[in-house]
Design goal:
There is one protein chain. By secondary structure, the chain is α+β, with helices and mostly antiparallel strands. The strands form 7 sheets. The protein has a 7-stranded mixed beta sheet. The longest helix is centred in the last third of the chain and has 26 residues.
Length: 508
């Protein structure tokens, strides 16, 4: 996206579309009185809102809506979002779920990787760039050729030199001539906080996923900011969930609430998922399978692998050692649309497929994040022949997605000790076959965690401690998930196939 596109940024009120996957839960009795928490989130593809009851420790109302097409792809550019339309949708959902409730605190969530630039008076000058925006691919590829620079950056920030990180998106904007002296830098969650309070605050957790934080000192990384050329004052002060700012009259009008309610600064959905899943104990790993996939391990100090195959970000409590892949449910959706467009996902569960005789699939239809960080890497089927059925192709996609995550898991275990527990969540829970494949490939018991909207719950838990309703976010616990053990025969089969996958990965 060139500067000519950025300068044409204007607000367009978007139609609000309710998607079938959105849920609304309503418990009338819970609204008769008492303290309520409102949690809002701007995720990668949708806005979400939850009304949370601290007494029952349950969600009272939850709504989720996908971003309209014109908001999700600003100017037709993949990964660039219409900021004000996204914020308007989140505020609209918040107003709907908070209607009639005694909301006494607001908690906010965003994503680990998002960036927008605003004027000094808070008017967006660019769209929001998400992790899917590829504008900095060329710049990042050039920088990665310098092994010393790449390792030094990784050791300071816990991040790889890669186009998904706002640090390199900022460098690309600099090279295109953007004048940083005229603006301020926000994350999308930070801009939601600014919209509701009029204050510019960010969390170190969010910006650790932007490649802008020194992971050891938990402060802005001065060397990276100097390289980008950001002047003093363009970055927000860093705050935590123990800080808050009052809901402004303008923010109150958007949400239909009274002004003055404390609003907590925004945290990233991946970190909030760890809180909402009750996974802050050392050695507990969450494995979430959404549009992309991520594994996150709570650790007491910054943990970095010998080479930048995984990442290390900050959680609200300590550190997260983890990895993320670009291909997950997005690859599965692609395969279903290509091979079985007229059938439901439930129909595909019963299909016959010989796991021994499937092609291999590299899930890099959307480039690669961990472990190789090659944003130009291509995916596809290997060893495909006329004898393979559409069913075998479909299940090889499920397998390939898991193999990519397992690659990351092996590196993560080398940098840390193997996790004591793995909590599985996300779209994979809708497919018993895929869940079993996961246990078989990882070769260990996993816990299937049906914690709906864990990131929203995590935001509410931060507000519980902030308001004194909970001693510590570490005290929050969830019901134990359903255990799933590997099938020994299939575990050996997938171990053999994994070697074939790695051979194609190395040659791809």
């Amino acid at each position: 996206m060139r500067l000519s596109c950025l300068r044409s940024f204007t607000f367009r009120r978007s139609e609000l579309i309710l998607v079938t996957s959105g849920r609304l839960v309503f418990k009338a009795a819970a609204l008769k009185g008492g303290f309520m928490i409102l949690a809002l989130e701007c995720s990668t593809t949708s806005a979400k809102a939850m009304l949370f009851d601290p007494q029952s420790m349950e969600a009272v109302r939850v709504k989720s809506r996908a971003y309209p097409r014109q908001a999700a792809s600003f100017g037709g550019v993949p990964g660039a979002q219409d900021t004000l339309s996204v914020i308007a949708l989140a505020a609209s959902l918040g107003k709907e779920v908070a209607d009639g409730a005694d909301v006494q605190a607001l908690a906010l969530g965003g994503t680990f990787h998002s960036l927008l630039l605003c004027s000094r008076d808070g008017v967006p000058l660019t769209p929001t760039f998400t992790w899917m925006y590829g504008g900095a691919q060329g710049l990042a590829a050039r920088l990665r050729r310098d092994a010393r620079y790449t390792l030094d950056y990784y050791q300071r920030t816990g991040c790889m030199v890669h186009a998904l990180y706002p640090a390199f998106q900022l460098m690309q904007l600099r090279d295109e001539g953007f004048d940083f002296s005229k603006g301020r830098v926000f994350s999308q969650g930070g801009f939601l906080f600014y919209t509701l309070t009029g204050s510019h605050l960010e969390t170190a957790s969010t910006n650790s996923g932007g490649g802008l934080i020194n992971i050891h000192e938990k402060t802005w990384d001065s060397q990276t900011l100097a390289e980008i050329g950001l002047p003093a004052g363009s970055q927000a002060p860093l705050a935590t969930y123990l800080d808050s700012r009052p809901l402004s009259p303008a923010g109150a009008a958007l949400l239909g609430l009274k002004s003055g309610i404390p609003v907590l600064p925004s945290y990233p959905d991946g970190a909030l998922n760890q809180v909402g899943s009750g996974a802050l104990d050392w050695g507990v790993m969450t494995f979430s399978m959404g549009t992309s996939a991520a594994i996150r391990l709570s650790v007491p100090s910054a943990r970095l692998s010998q080479r930048p195959g995984t990442w290390c970000y900050l959680s609200p409590a300590a550190w997260l050692s983890g990895a993320a892949t670009s291909g997950a449910c997005n690859c599965v959706d692609w395969a279903k649309g290509l091979l079985f467009p007229a059938q439901s996902f439930a129909d595909l569960e019963g299909m016959e497929a010989d796991y021994e005789d499937m092609p291999h699939f590299l899930p890099f239809l959307f480039g690669e994040r961990c472990p190789g960080w090659d944003d130009g890497k291509k995916g596809g089927f290997y060893g495909l022949s006329a004898r393979h059925s559409p069913a075998s192709m479909y299940f090889s996609v499920l397998e390939g997605v898991l193999f990519n995550v397992f690659q990351c898991y092996e590196i993560l275990c080398a940098a840390n000790t193997p996790p004591k527990k793995i909590k599985l969540s996300g779209g994979i829970l809708h497919s018993p076959r895929w869940q079993q494949m996961c246990a078989d490939i990882f070769g260990r018991e996993i816990s299937c965690e049906a914690v709906p909207h864990a990131s929203l719950v995590g935001a509410a838990v931060l507000a519980l401690e902030h308001t004194g309703r909970l001693g510590s976010i570490r005290d929050y616990r969830v019901k134990e998930g359903r255990p799933l053990k590997p099938d020994e025969k299939n575990a050996h089969l997938f171990a053999r196939r994994y070697k074939g996958y790695l051979a194609h990965y190395a040659g791809g």
